Amino acid sequence: MTDTVTDIDASSTTRVVLVDDDPLVRSGLRLILGGGPGLDVVAEAGDGLEALDVVAREQPDVVLMDIRMPRLDGIEATRRLVAGGTSRVIVLTTFDTDDMILEALRAGAAGFLLKDTPPDRLVAAVQAAAAGEPTLSPRVAEQLITAVTRGSAPDGRRVAAARVAGLTDRERDVALAVGRGLSNAEIAAELYMSVPTVKTHVSRILTKLDAANRVQAAIVVHDAGLAG
């Protein structure tokens, strides 16, 4: 899975597939996303196996994926989709245990959001994912910090610290913000930078940290103790 820092065309439509075994949840998500500018829910699936077929047929820009589903769970479905070249999968679930978060992100999810995420942030997360900007809800970002810090082996911490040492001071500031789950726009506002400048820094950070996407970069940041 690769992360890109290029924007999608503002005039284009982002095609979304919803995957959840609860029809009421899918209906609610369809209503929320249907009100978002440039978003089009093109299909739904009730489990992971159906999702594989639907995604292959529809070729969506973003997939919103539940975890607990019959036949094939969302984590394994995400793993298979990412292996097949679908890189913009956002896991959306009521479950936020540390192990589940890490398992989903290691499966290749571009983001992890909780179902109690406010509608406006959910819309923004889908738009960000379509632009190649993975998203973590703030609560999930905090849990990721705790889980990675607690579970990191000494060798892993040393490797991460060595990678982080190659960042410039400004790149470290941006990397820290990425580790907190902030979007490019939020980082730009907080650090008084332009969005294009943030994107340039993020691209360099991914290269220096040997990270395929922002989520992996966040893990390296926390593993190295940069988020403290």
From TrEMBL:
Keywords from UniProt, A to Z, are: DNA-binding, Phosphoprotein, Transcription, Transcription regulation
Q: Which Pfam families does the annotation name? A: GerE, Response_reg
Q: Which domain of life is it from?
A: Bacteria
Q: Where is the Response regulatory domain?
A: 15-130
Instruction: PTM 4-aspartylphosphate: list the residues.
Output: D66
HTH luxR-type domain segment(s): 160-225
Which Gene Ontology MF annotations are present?
Answer: DNA binding
- Protein name stated in the entry: DNA-binding response regulator
